[in-house]
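Worked Example 4.2. Consider the chain below.
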Amino acid sequence: MLAGATARLAPWLLASVGGLLWALCFGRETLPLASWLALGPLVMLLGLPRSWALGWLHGVVYWLVAIPWIRPTLETYGGLPTWLAAVSLLLLCLYLGAFHGLFAFLGRSLWRRGGVVAMAGLPALWVALEWLRAHLFSGFPWNLAAYAWTEVPGALPIAAWIGAYGVSFLLLLANVAAVEALVGRRRLAGVATILACLLALAIGARWGDGGPALGPPAAGRAAPSVSVRLLQPNTENLVSWDPVLAQEGYRRIFDLSYRACDEAGALLVWPESAAWPHSWGASPQLRQDLKELAAAGCPVLFNSTDERPEGYFNSVLLLDRQGVAGRYDKRHLVPFGEYVPLARAFFFLQKIARNAGTYVAGSDVAPLPWGDQLLGPAVCFEVVFPAEVAEQVRAGATLLVTVTNDAWYGDTSAPWQHFRAVRFRAAETRRPFVRAALTGISAVVEPDGSVRQLLGVGEEGFLRARVRGRTGISPYARQPSVVPAGASMVALFAIFLARRRRS
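Applying the procedure from the previous section yields the following structure tokens:
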């Protein structure tokens, strides 16, 4: 009887342990070697009864371990009681975990069919579901599978061709092949496929630079470099209003700015919410102080709430000696943070999002002109959407910049998870990417996704760097939907073949 109970519990234990192992690949540091096997337990569950439920459990455990920082964020800054914050996190994880369950439900027939149908169909199905998660209900493309390979040589460079979704395909392919080899169904094919994945990464590391079209802005001569200063004041978010602490944070960002303005023309990049609660339109003091700073010789790229007749916008403004030289309005707002979806229909959402704003989404993609460069801004959450960053590059951006406030999440894995998306966006578009964060991580990221300079979580200071903008469009940035659309078609065709054979 004990043996029977153990046998019945074993699949559920495997699902839970598998979800935990996969989540550990998205901690403060990734596990590059473990990521080649971390999804193996989920693949093995496909051959068991009730695979959809096992897959769902795998996903719920994964998300609970990967994003636990949401609960204290809701509790501390959203004003929710502990139990309601925990329930909110659980409900979110149940939703996100359902994608793992759907993968297991649809992938079961592919695994049973085996061969090329399983080997190609399962990674394609995973990518299709990642793409669906990135678009459904405003989208949440957090922790794409590719990010577990951020430190795997070749993964970032090859993203210029296939994007993060393509790297996710390779990671899933390697995991499926590893299970094929380990369980003994097709050991030779599994080993050969793993070797093929290694070869693809090696090719990416050697030739994944996106081609000669991604050279310097001016052909025939060296591209001029430009000076940037990325400010990180390490100003914590206030749980309750304190005018003394607010004024202290305000003075800190200006003191840091004048220290950083050590070269005429250097661009000062402020993080999101650096001047809170002051805003450009409503605070004469902020306008005066910023104009004096720009007059000292350093243009400033800063974030501010911008009130207009249409409503409130979460904006990035570029200020130089002549005044506001450009403005970008955040296009992809955060649900429950910057707007409340379905607030009129569901009254309880107002309760959960009591501190949420009521912002209006921007629509203009035009980059901000700065000297010989065109800046492509992204505000906080926007950087996790691959196609939206690629759209800015197609619009002409030569240098990408993101401003963010990750102070909401404290010294957790969240800032590191967020930062990995920045590294992939740089590699996908073959653009230098500079990031200013309120409490970290601020960094200068090279066009191949490597990190040149970094200020960690909790550090105060600024980064001084010279960067070169780039023109040309990488294969991925030119057509960012090719891989997810192709994967969706492959997955549908594989499911059709598997179901047809079964019937």
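The chain has two domains: 2-210+481-502, 225-473. The chain has 15 helices and twelve strands. Compare this with Example 4.1 before moving on.
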